[in-house]
Structures are given as C-alpha cells and as structure tokens.
Amino acid sequence: MPCLNLSTNVSLDGVETSSILSEASSAVAKIIGKPEAYVMIVLKGSVPMAFGGTEEPAAYGELVSIGGLTSDVNKKLSGAIANVLETKLSVPKSRFYLKFYDTKGSNFGWNGSTF
C-alpha cells in the first residue's frame, strides 16, 4: 500500500505524466518489495513553491508505507524518485525533499476498512 505524493512547482502542461507515474510506481514497488498493484502515486504540478529562496524548479514528496522502510530503502527510494523528477521534469536532485512515513496497517484505510 505504499503511497507517494509528489508536488512540484513545474507546470505539467504538455508533459507526459503517464511515464512519470509509471516509472515512480515501478521504482517504489521494486525498492520496497511490495506488489505494484497496491502502489499509489499522486503527482501535482504548478504548486506555488520556493526552495532556497527561489522559485526555480523544485519538488517535495511524502511516501507512506506499511512497513518496508529502512535507512537503506529510503536512500534508494530518494535516489530513484529524484532521478525520475530530474529526467522528466528537470527538477535538480538538490531541489527535492522526500519525507518517509512508516505506519501501522490500522492507520491506513482501504476498501472501506483498514489494512
């Protein structure tokens, strides 16, 4: 059930968002070791955002997962998602933060109930 929420100040108009969603979903599933069928990716563009005092391309993400997150996994996820953002949206890796949340199944709703 990993869920990755990504926000960027880059406009998504004319951008092939399907490839961003696909690459991010595949990376999250593979790195965490969860079935991709349960991975959700949310991508929001044109979000007013400043990083380091400028409005140059930047992004912020939050990844929530029921287990599977370790220091090593988080490092790999940070690199993989930063690569996607840099290649697809020209967001430099140095202008991207990613926050990780490891949660209990009872704190995550799905299918009208919880995990």
UniProtKB/TrEMBL annotation:
<dbReference type="GO" id="GO:0050178">
    <property type="term" value="F:phenylpyruvate tautomerase activity"/>
</dbReference>
<protein>
    <recommendedName>
        <fullName>Macrophage migration inhibitory factor homolog</fullName>
    </recommendedName>
</protein>
<dbReference type="InterPro" id="IPR014347">
    <property type="entry name" value="Tautomerase/MIF_sf"/>
</dbReference>
<dbReference type="GO" id="GO:0005615">
    <property type="term" value="C:extracellular space"/>
</dbReference>
<dbReference type="InterPro" id="IPR001398">
    <property type="entry name" value="Macrophage_inhib_fac"/>
</dbReference>
<dbReference type="Pfam" id="PF01187">
    <property type="entry name" value="MIF"/>
</dbReference>
<comment type="similarity">
    <text>Belongs to the MIF family.</text>
</comment>
